[in-house]
Structure formats: C-alpha cells, structure tokens
Amino acid sequence: MSTIPATTSGSSRPQAPEKAWWKEASVYQIYPASFNDSDGDGLGDIPGIIQKVDYLGALGVDVVWLCPVYESPQIDMGYDVSDYRSIHAPYGTVEDVDRLIAALHERRMRLVMDLVVNHTSDQHVWFRESRSSLSNPKRDWYIWKKPRWDAAGNRLPPNNWASVFGGSAWSWDETTGEYYLHLFCKEQPDLNWENPDVVQAVHDIMTFWLDKGVDGFRMDVINFISKSPGLPDAPLKLPGQEFQPGDLHYANGPRLHEFLRGLREVLDRYDAFAIGEMPCVKEEQDVLMAVAADRKELNMIFQFDIVSIDIGSGGKFTSKTWSLAKMKAIVNKWQTCMYDNNGWNALFLENHDQSRSVSRFTPHRPENRTAAAKMLATFLALQSGTVFVYQGQELGMANLPREWPIDEYKDVETLNLYRLAMQQHRGDSEAVEQLMDQVRLKARDHSRSPMQWNAQQHGGFTTGTPWVRANDADYMHCNAEQQLRDPTSVLAYWRQLLRLRKQNVDVFVYGRFELLAAADPSLFCYRRIDPSGYGVATLVLNFTDCEYEWQVPPAEVVEALTAARCVLGNYEPPAELNGDGSMRLKPFEALVILELEDLYEGA
Ligand code: TEU
C-alpha cells in the first residue's frame, strides 16, 4: 500500500524498521487471579507468579505484562482501581511487586504493568470526594452533567451513549443531583482528562511505578481519554435501542495525541515503553497517529480488527460469519501499513477479554486441537510485530465445555449483556440458544479459567477452592507438566517458534511482509523478507480441518521448497512438493521454510 504522508517524516520510500529491543521482544500476559495461587485461597497471587518465572524464561518470552493487581473492589477484576499505589491484598503487597521485578530482571526479563486511567473505581478516594458535593475540589476530576428531561417530565441521562457493558453510560447521583459518565460499569466512573490535575496525577502514578523499576505500561482503553466537547448524542446505529454506541465521540477524541505525548514524556525519562489498547479504531491514519515512530506517542497499540471479525452488528454476543479472505485482508492491511509508515504492530489473538483462539478460530475438534493450536501460533508469531502470548495459549488451552450452564460464567460483561439479551428475547427459546452459543464462543470467561499446570485437582492452580471453576474436563489432558515432557506438545512448539524468531530477527522481526496465494480460500500463506536481502521465510498454513490438495502452489513456495528446508512444522514429516508440483497438506498443517544466504559465501 502507499505511504500516508501526514504521519511520516517525509520519506516516501519504506525504510527497514529501526531496531529496538521491544520490537524483538515476546510478551507473556498474566491474568493474576487465574495464574498461580501460592497460598491456597483460591485466587492467584504475585508470589505465585514469582514461582513460575523460570517457566516463563524457558518459554523464551522477554516481557511479562501483568493485568491490574492494584487495590480494587474487583467489580471488573481490577480494571476498577481504588488505589494505584497499593496492591489488592489477596494478590500480595507492593514489596511482592518489587520481588517480582527483581526476579524478572535477574533473568533478563522485563515487567509491564497495566495502567487503567480512563476511569477509576467508584471507591477511589478521588471519586468519593468528587461525589460528596458540587463544590468539592475533586468534583471536576470526573465527568458530571445535569439531566435532560423529556416532554412528560421524566429525567433522562445527559446523552444517549451506551455503556460498553450494556445500559446507559451515565448513572444518576442522588446526593448532588447530577449524572456521572462511566463508559464501562457504573462502578467505573470516567476521569476528566480536561482537568490538568488529573493528567498530573496520572503522570505521578506512572512515575511511582517506573521508579520501582517497572519497564513500561499497557494502557487500558487509552484512546477513550479525550471525549468530544459537549458530549453530543451518538448517531443512531442500533435502531430500536435506547442507548447507542458513542465511540464516535469518545474514541480518539480531539486531545488524545496531546495527552499521549504527555505520557510519552514521562516514559522517555526512563526509557520505558508503552502499548496502548485502542478499541473502535479502524483507520490506518488514526493508528499511525499514535504509533508512527516520529510522533513520539506510543510504541504500539492493540488494534481490534481480528478479534472483532466474528462480532455481529448487534454487539459482542451477536454472530457474524468470518472468512479467511477477511482475515487475510486485515492482516495484510496492518502488516504493510505499519512497515511502510514506520509504525509497529502488536500481534495477539488472545487476552483476558477474548476467548481461546483454538476454539474461536478453528472448529473445535479434539483430534486436531494440537495441530490447530500450533498452526495459529505459527500464523501469529512470525508476522511483523511484537508477539503477545496470553497465559495458557502456549498450551493450546480451549474454551470452557459447552455443557457448562450460564451459572459458571462470572464476568460482569458476560452477565450484563446476557441479562439484557434475555430481557429482549423473552420466550424465544431459539434466540436464547443462539445467545448461549455466542457466550460459549466469545465470553471473556473462557480465558479467565485457571491456568492448567498439571493433572491434579483444579489443574494444580490452587490447593483451595478456585475463584472460578477450573476446566476439569480438560486439565487431565492439557497441562504444562505433561507438555514440558512432550517434545511434540504445543508448549514445545511455542518454545521452538519464539527461538526461531529470535535467531532470525532480520527476517522475522524486521522483514517485510508479503501475502501469497491471496485468493486461496483455505490456506494462509505469506513471506517475510529480510530488508537487506539475505533471508526469506515462506509460511504455508492450512486453516482448515481437512486435508488439502494444493494443485498449483505459487512459484515463491515452489522455489522456497526447492531451495531450502522446512525449519519448523507441526507434522512429521512435513508436506513436500509432489513430482507433479502439487502439495498435500494435512489438517491445520503449518510449514516454515527459511532460506538464508550464506553471508560469507565465496569469501
Ligand atoms: O477492555 C476494553 C474493551 O474495549 C472491552 O470492551 C473489551 O474489548 C471487551 O470487554 C471485550 O469483550 C479493557 C480491559 O481489557 C477490560 O478487561 C476492561 O473490562 C475494560 O477495559 C474496562 O477497563
């Protein structure tokens, strides 16, 4: 694709990306509640993470991103912070974080904390003061507005924005007779970034943790911090619904980039890095404005195209059929756009808000699960960008069993959206079953299930009663202990994959991306090309659960297979070219063919 001049420093020809440690890094995301419980209270904790740092080191990751561990009433599992400088007691203490930092640094790994500053908990002292009176000095730290009234004299919220978790984005506060804004739960009031004291307070929180040796932040919904002046009504997108998605007015608002540059100044004092979570952003230009190197804002962002691919227009639990063609278009768009414009991708298929990729993006069949998990790993980890592995993804952990009823789902988003949909579908059993199918496919609960360490009770996650039920239909067969022993396991494969990437950074990190066989409906095929011309990797991925007879592979694949060897694959022996030039690929087969020029040839 062409370059987008507004965001580059004027060069019209794509240059090889500048080298940086964070581009070469692989990041492992830890959801503390479900990772490892060291004291038997049923909830994971920081000492439990420290027990597993060698496991992470052996996997080959360089950075740990820790989801929020701050003091919090846990309405949204820590994304509702009530004190940014204390730790939620069941997770441990600030000293435990110090120990975690030391344990990681000793092993040459880094720690990235979650920075949740679009909103706080309603139990944060700032909000408690803010809501106490109209004249409180903290009143303006949050977004308060007077009600609207309809013709019949009914009180209405100040605008029609829907909360991401359902219902209005506004809650009425009886004490002061105004509404406050909360884009998520009512217990998560939005901070008012228009007030410079709020901005300063955020900078101070960052400084507090950076002084402790934290290496950077993952910034929660960071593109929501600047809202359109006047908070106008959202356009009607969902006919018949009282509240409408308001992202036009709260995502990427007018002062976003000014605020991001402010955050970056703090980070730069420590050579720390930042990855922003940016939902509701689709345009290249908007992403580049935040991540192009010369803009000095964020290093990279989580962009949502892939994880929205199967979300219908009615919201998370409405269905949409996705196609490989669509997936290719998304990947190709971001891979080329970032390369051409000096930006950088964050590569992810899973996190604590998404279900398990092997259940979501491949038909869930036990006999193909290992191959499918390895294929998805190859697909993801050898693209251009920084790789994010979510806990359990390295084992090919799957969604919760289909038979589990809604009572086993605990997430506030799942339960709110489920309740609202049930009201809508009252009496329509077919619609209810369809809804439940979507919950089984996409609920956040699937990724929050306890990490499967071994075949013992609760998968070895806890000796107590886990805060959510462990996947007891699965951990007997799929667990870290067993996979550490098995050289053909998904875990062993991830280790090989991350090593391969690291050993060939010029190809896999800094190389150009080129989509091959764009029109093929079953295969995802791409090349990574070292900018200096010394190496090329060719990837062939069968995205289907059927054998696939590839009659005429593209010339690039044929050449690669003729000239070089398959350095990684998920079948032994890997597929080869037949005498007639065709290839037969097994279900979910993945091949990585690497051609390296001998630099010293002829010397
Ligand atoms: O998520 C932001 C976000 O956009 C969510 O709506 C997410 O995409 C959705 O839940 C997927 O189903 C962040 C955090 O990652 C999430 O855990 C928090 O609940 C949310 O912000 C509020 O802090």
TrEMBL record:
<dbReference type="GO" id="GO:0000025">
    <property type="term" value="P:maltose catabolic process"/>
</dbReference>
<dbReference type="InterPro" id="IPR017853">
    <property type="entry name" value="GH"/>
</dbReference>
<protein>
    <submittedName>
        <fullName>Glycoside hydrolase family 13 protein</fullName>
    </submittedName>
</protein>
<dbReference type="InterPro" id="IPR045857">
    <property type="entry name" value="O16G_dom_2"/>
</dbReference>
<keyword id="KW-0378">Hydrolase</keyword>
<dbReference type="InterPro" id="IPR013780">
    <property type="entry name" value="Glyco_hydro_b"/>
</dbReference>
<dbReference type="GO" id="GO:0004575">
    <property type="term" value="F:sucrose alpha-glucosidase activity"/>
</dbReference>
<keyword id="KW-0462">Maltose metabolism</keyword>
<dbReference type="InterPro" id="IPR006047">
    <property type="entry name" value="GH13_cat_dom"/>
</dbReference>
<feature type="domain" description="Glycosyl hydrolase family 13 catalytic">
    <location>
        <begin position="29"/>
        <end position="448"/>
    </location>
</feature>
<dbReference type="GO" id="GO:0033934">
    <property type="term" value="F:glucan 1,4-alpha-maltotriohydrolase activity"/>
</dbReference>
<dbReference type="Pfam" id="PF00128">
    <property type="entry name" value="Alpha-amylase"/>
</dbReference>
<dbReference type="GO" id="GO:0004574">
    <property type="term" value="F:oligo-1,6-glucosidase activity"/>
</dbReference>
<dbReference type="GO" id="GO:0004556">
    <property type="term" value="F:alpha-amylase activity"/>
</dbReference>
<dbReference type="GO" id="GO:0005987">
    <property type="term" value="P:sucrose catabolic process"/>
</dbReference>
<comment type="similarity">
    <text>Belongs to the glycosyl hydrolase 13 family.</text>
</comment>
